[in-house]
# Entry
Amino acid sequence: MLPKIVKRPEPSRAMVYLTPIYALLLTILTSMVVFTALGVDPIEALRNFFIVPINNAYGASELLVKATPLILCAIGLSVGFRANVWNIGAEGQLTLGAIFGGGLFVYLHDVDSIFLLPAMIILGAVGGALWAGIPAFLKTKFNANEILTSLMLVYVATLLLSVLIHGPWRDPDGFNFPESRMFSESATMPLILEGTRLHFGSILALLAVLGTWLMLAKTLIGFQIKVIGAAPKAGGYAGFSQKKIIWFSLLFGGAMAGIAGVSEVSGPVGQLLPSISPGYGFTAIIVAFLGRLHPVGIIFAGLLMALTYLGGETAQINLGLPVAVTGVFQGMVLFYLLACDVLVNYRFEFKSMGRAAG
Amino acid sequence: MSYEWLVPVILTVITAATPLVFAGIGELITEKSGVLNLGVEGMMLVGAVSAFVAATVTGSYFIAILTGALAGMFMAFLFGILTLSLMANQVATGLALTLFGVGLSSLIGQDYVGTPVAALAKLNISGLTDLPIIGPILFGQDVLVYLSFVSVIGVSWFLYKTKAGLILRAVGDSHNAAHSIGYSVIGIRYLAVMFGGAMSGIGGAYLSLAYTPMWAENMTAGRGWIALALIVFATWKPGLVLVGAYMFGGITILQLHAQAAGLDLPSQILSMLPYLATVIVLVLISKDESRIRKHAPACIGKIFHPAA
# Structure
C-alpha cells in the first residue's frame, strides 16, 4: 500500500525547523552504510568525522575559521534566494573579492597603515558586488537567466585570478611560483585568539548575519524581499519593483562573498594563490538552504558544513578515506533536506483501502 | 590553394561539440516534458567517471558507454524522486544534483586520476576514410559522434512525428490538461528525466573516453551548464541544439588554434572564451522575451500535484 500525499491546509512551521534535523540524521545513516561498504567501521568513521576534529580548542577554532567564508557567502545568497533570485556564482564573487582586496595589497605592499586592511575589505566587497552586478544587469536589462550567467562568471573569475598570479602579480622573490607576495601585517586580519588561526573575519561574518537579520526584519527593502519571494504577484500589485529587488539581492550577495574572499586571502591563506577556496561559494548554497534562509539557521548550518571539511581531512588522515567524502556528504544533506521538505507542505496518509471502504 | 589544414580543425570541433550535443538533446527532452533539471553538470561528471572506470576494468567500450548512460540515469532518477514524487523545488534540486555529482564523481574516480585509457576507436573504412578532406570527416569518426547525429534526428522525429512525442509536449505545455485526459504526467516526466540523464551520462562518457581519454576531477568544466544555455539558444528545437553545440565546440577549439597561431595573449584569457560566449549568446537570445515565452514549455519548472 502506497502512502497518499495530501496537501496541508497550511505549511507546518514545526516541519520547517525539524526537516534539517531529519536530513542530517538520514545523511548520517546513509553515510554509515557507505562507510561500511568502503570497509571502514562506521562508528569509528563518524567519530573521526564529527568528534575528533573539534575535541580540542584548536580544532574548535579551526571550525570557526572554516565556517567564516561559508556563513558570509550563505547570508548573502539567502537574501536572493528568499526573493527567488538564484545567484549561484558566489564562488566567482568570492574570487573577485580576493582579487580586488588582494590587488590593493599587491600595489601598496610597502605601505604600513592601519587603513590598508579596512580599504582591502571595502574594495573586496566592491569587487564581489561588481561581479554580481553583471548577472543583475543582464537579468534586468536583457532578461538573461541569472543562474547561467552567474555560474559562467565563476569560471571567468578563476581564470582571471590565474592570469594575474601567473603574470603581473607574481611574487618577484617567489622563485617563479604562481603566487603573490605574502601579505604584510597591516594587510592581514588580526587574530582574535593567540595560538589559533581564528581571525577578525569571523567577527565580520557575525556582523553580516546580524545586519542581514535587521535588514530583513526592520527595513522596507527587507519586507519587499520577503513579499516578492512569497508571492511575486502580490508584490507586483503592491508596486514593489522586481528589478530593484534583483539588483539589491545580487549586489548584496556579491558584496558578502567579496568580503569572504578578502577575509580568506588576508586570513588563513595569507597571499593570493591560483586556488583560494575549496568551493566555499558552492557549499554556501547548501548552508543557505540548510539554515532555512534564516540568519540564525545559517550560523548553525555554516558550522555544520565547516565540520564536514574538517571531518573529511581527519577521515583522510586517520582512516585513509578519500577527501571527496566531504562533497558527497554535503550533497547528501541537501538531497535529504529537499526530500524531507515535502513534509512542510504535505502530509502522508497511510490509510489502507479496506478501512477506507469500510 | 590547399584546404588540408581545415580537416584537423573540423575534426577537433566535432570532438568538442559531441558531448554538448548529447547533454543538450537529453535536457531538451526533459524540458519539453515540463521539467527543468539543472543537474546536467553533475550527471555528466558521474557518467564520465563511471564510463571511465568501466572501460579500465572491463576494457569494453560498449560496457563503458552503457555504464555512463546508466550512471546518468541513476542520478536523474534521484532527481525524479525528489522533484516528481516528493515535489521538491526543481532549481534547488538541480543544484543539489550537481553538487552531489561533483563529490560522488571524485569519490568514485579517486584511484583513477591520471591513468590513461586508449581513446575510443575511430571508424576506418579503407578507401572511404582515405578520401581527401571528406574521408576523415565523414567516415573517420568514433561511434558516439554518429550516435549524436542519430539522436538529434531521432529526437526531432519523436517530438514532431509521433503520438508519444505529442503527448510529451502536451505534458510539458499543460500538465493539468494532459492529466485530465488520462495521461500519467508523473510517469511521462520520469521517463523524460531519465532519458535526459542517460544522454548526459553518455555526454560525460564521451569526455572521459574520447575527448581526453582519462579521468580528472571536474573534467566537464562547465559543459553541463553550457548545454543548459544551448537549449535557450536553440529555443527548444533539436536541430538548433546541434547547431549551437557545434558553434560552442568551434569556440572551444578556437582558443587552441589561436595559441598555435601565435596570438600573444595569456592562455587563460582564451580559455574564458566559451564561458563569455555563453553569456553573450544568452543575452542576445533572451533579449526578446516574447520569443522565449512562445517557445519554452509552459509548465517548465512547475510542480504537478493532481488535486484528486
Summary: The beta strands of chain A are 4-7, 346-349. The longest helix of chain A spans residues 242-269.
